[in-house]
Every structure is written in structure tokens, then in C-alpha cells.
Amino acid sequence: MQKCTKIIAACIPILSILWALQLPLLLEIEVAKTQFLSVLLGCGCTLVYLTQKNGNKLLQYFWAVVSFGAFAWIGLEYQRFQMDFPYLTTEMQILGFLSLFIIADTIRRTTGWILLSVVGVFFLYGIFGHLVPSPLTGTGSTLTEIAVYLTFDPNALLGTPLSVVATIVIVFIFFGKLLVKTGCGEFFIDLAMASMGKRRGSAAKTSIVGSALFGSISGSAVSNVVTTGVMTIPLMKRSGYSGVQAGAVEAIASTGGQLMPPIMGAAAFLMAQTLEIPYSEVVVASLLPALLYYISVFIQVDLIAARDNIISSDVKVKLVKEVLKEGWHFILPFAVLLYSMFAHNTSAELAALYGSITVIIFGSLRSYQGKRLSIKSLFSSFPETGYTVMELTMIVAGAGLVIGLLNISSGGFALTLSLVQLGDSSLTILLLISACVCMVLGMGMPTTGVYVLLAALVAPALIEAGIPALAAHMFILYFGMMSMITPPIALAAFAAATITEDKPMQTGMEAMKLGWVAYVVPLLFIFTPELLMEADLLSIILTFIIIVIAVHFISVAMVGYFAKRLKVPARLLLVCIGAVAIAPQSLINLGYLPSIVAVALGGVFLFWLAYSSKQNP
Questions:
Q1: Rounded CA gap, 392 and 13, in Å?
Q2: What is the pLDDT of residues 117-154, one digit of tens each?
């Protein structure tokens, strides 16, 4: 049975790769995307049941067979079902109810009750939406109508979220698996340690750089924490950071990996698909915000090290040139990936395949720390990719159900209308409420699932209020992502706390403090298009420099140290100066003048602090 499980797991990336290569088209076989998605979803559900360790094994095997059979049948006969859709045939009703039960059960088994509860709330809304008070009144439907619609309509279960994961994300995760197999993870950590050297706070800085680099191939906050955290957290604690600080640094650094180009997280691919723009445009728009995010954290851990007299790392590190000499070949796959997407406008999935081929060639010819890609490790990458995307497949299936329920009940339109009416009175109130909705919905859910829900619920209202589409979607992506470090349910912070063996809630609160910039930058997306590179080059550069300086002022205030410990009045003054410097020009109507004056004042104040600390040590 274990061999059968591996085969099913391996089929998931194989199907995605064959679809990316457009094999049905090459063989002149007519296969609709929904047919492919149904079969792949069947493999995912089957894998869930086959990998469950607890429960009645015989019953699990039964549901594994039923799952594969049901979705394979839907895939094979999908075109006939489309013709029968208006008639709600008995066959479609049975398959509809069976599919919903299987998806609900597999979501519960892989992600727990939180996502399933969210789906359940929208399911009830789909039935009783007509009874909900205005302005959220929807249209009620029968159970039979809902079951058939959700299963067979291409805008529901087999809709965009599952499509993006099946056609693009799985190929990128396979690409990441190959990189890890060849030692790229160790290369990134070594490069981070070498680049930080023996500077103060080097252990925390290694965590930041390493997690940012590793996040570019993992795209998952929690997996990033547990992978890099086991190396960086003990290093930080030995150098003098407290357990809470070490856990918070790792959580915030790993969470930012989902924003780190070029791969980012699955949500970025969903954004490109939703906005119908090339993935490369999302990468470009994400670059400056990601740099701001990590610059802010970097400044704070450096100041904490100075304030608390934290020594440099006690680990012997290589020189940067030594690390690059041994692992230069890891740069090539990323170069191929970026060159394909930007120079040739290649689709994201094909670019990932070209990158994967590059990894296979150079990873089999060169080794790093004794790791070389063998035939065995190459073939093991297929089932491992299947196991990795199993939970993600269930998450986007659940998100597809929510989107389908919003469509059939007109709930998305009702919520958008009510939020737009709110935005007419005050855009600021709309943004603050939207930010709260993003973080509340995101609690306990992975970023991908959060983004899909928010893209259906919140983003349309922001766009209707006059906010550019890319800015609106970046806004919800950031606030949805920050649920990973925002208590009471902060998955990344809690994962780090399990490694530090310290208090999870305190770790989450400390992570929020370190990641303050991620709660501010999304608001800048709305009023400062330069941050998303939607302006002329000179404006982009000048705006970015000013915001970096403003972030430095506020980061100093957050830590409460610059050459000496700062008292509350000095910290509040720096916050005010930073706020004026970072304030969007569109709100002040005085151009860059207020920002430049604030930067000058802040610079003079920091110079005075440094001078006075020398005079009165």
C-alpha cells in the first residue's frame, strides 16, 4: 500500500508537468482543463485518505477508492455533464453530494476545523441568504442546486484557485524540491552566514537573510520556520537573544519569504491569474515592498544587538567567495527562470520547467556539501512534491467552494456593495475595516486560502472605491499574510515558539512589533504608486529612499535605542518625524517638501543623539 501511495503522490506533479508541456494538444487529444483538474483533485483526495495514520484503515482505503473513482468519473464525463447541467440529473446529484462530502472531510483531515467552518458559514449563507438582513441579503438555493453547481460549474470547485495550483504552483514546488535535493537550502544559509560575518547581531541577521533566500524557493511561512529555524534559532539564543526574540525574528523573516521574488508564495500566482496579468508584473510590484520589509527587520535586530550588547555568532563561517565558488551553479536556475519570464515573456509554469531542467543538469554534475542530485533523489522528488501540495490542494478546493457559494447566492455582490457604500463616506474607514477583515479571516488559515477568500470578498469593494486593481490585491495579500504573526492565532510565530520552547503569545506579540512595517506599507500601496513601481524611475528611486529613511526613524523608536537608550519623548518624536516623511504626497499636496524637511530634521536629531551619547556615555 505504501508503494501505491507513492505512485498516487507522484502522479500529482507528473500530471501538472504534462499539462504545462501541453501534452494533450501535442497528441491532438481533446482534454478540457476542468477534466484535468478533476482527475488531479481526485489524486489529492485519495492521497489524503492513504496518508492518514489514525482511524480505521479499511474505511480510509474505501474512501480513497471512492474519491478517486468519483472525481475520475466526473473528469471523464465532464462534457456530458455540462450538457445535462440544467436538468440536475440523479447521477449529477449523487456525484455532487458525494464530492462535497469528500472535500469537506479531506479539508478537515488536512487543515482542521477552521477552514471547514468558514466554508460551512458560506454554505449556510447559500441556503438561507434570502433571510439575511439588508444590505447583505442574498438569494437562497436548495441543497441539490448547490451540490450540483459547486461540483460541476467551472467557477466553483474546479475554478481558478485549483487551476492556478494545478497548472503553475505545483511545478514551482517541484522546482523548489529539486533545489533542496541538490543542497540549495544549505547554500543559502551558508551564504547568509558568510555575508553577515562577525557583525553584531550576526545570528539574527543570518536568520533574516537565510529565511528570505530560502523563502524564495519554499514560499510557505510555516515550512520556512521549521526548516531554517532549527538552525538559526539555537544560534540566536546562544549569541544572547532571548527565546521570544529569536522565535519572533525567525517567524517574521520566514513570513516575509512569501513576498520574496522571484518565486514568492502560491498567492502571488493566484493574484496574477485573478488580475489577468503576467506573473512577472507581480514580481516587479512586490520587489520594493519586500525590500522595505526586510530592511526594517534588519535595522531593528541590529539595534537590539547594540542595546542588549549581543555578541556576534560563535560559529566559524566561510568567506562569501568560498561559498560562491562551491555553489555558483545554484544561481543558474534562477537566472534561467527570470530570463525566461522577463526576456521572453514565457509562461510561469514553462519558466519553472526550464529552471527545473537547469537544476537537474547542474545538480547532477556538481555537488554542494556532499549533496548531488542522483537518479534516486530525482525520482523521489515527484512523490515528495505530491505530499507537499496535498494540503494546499484541499485549501484551494475549499476556497473554490466559497467562491462558488458567493456566486450562486450573490453574496459577493452584496458584500462588495455594502463596503463600497462605506467607502463613499470615508476611504480611510473602508481601508481600516478591510484590513481588520483580512487579518480576522486569516487567523489560523494559510496565506493562499486567505488570499483567495479576500480576493472574492474584499478586493472588489476596494477596486469599486477607485483603488487600482494591483494595489487592492497587494493590500489584501499583505494583511492576509500578517495573520501568520498576528495573535491570537499566529501560525508562523507559534511554529517558531515550538522550537524556542518559549511562550507562543509573547512570540507573536514580539513578531508583530518587529514586523510593524508590514502593517503600514499596504496603506502606502493605495496612495503611493511609486512603491509598486507604477511611476517614472526618478520618482520611484526618490520615494523609496525617503521611505527607507522614514522606516529607519520609526524602527529606532520601536527598539528605543540609538547610541544610547531613548526615553519616551524622544521615541515619540521619531515616530512623528517618520510618519510625516512616509506620508503619501497625494494626501498632503505639497510634493516632496514635507518628506524632505522631515528627513532633514530626523537626521539632525539622530546626529544629536549620537553626539550627546559620546559626550555623556
A1: 13
A2: 888 988 998 998 888 887 778 788 899 999 999 999 98
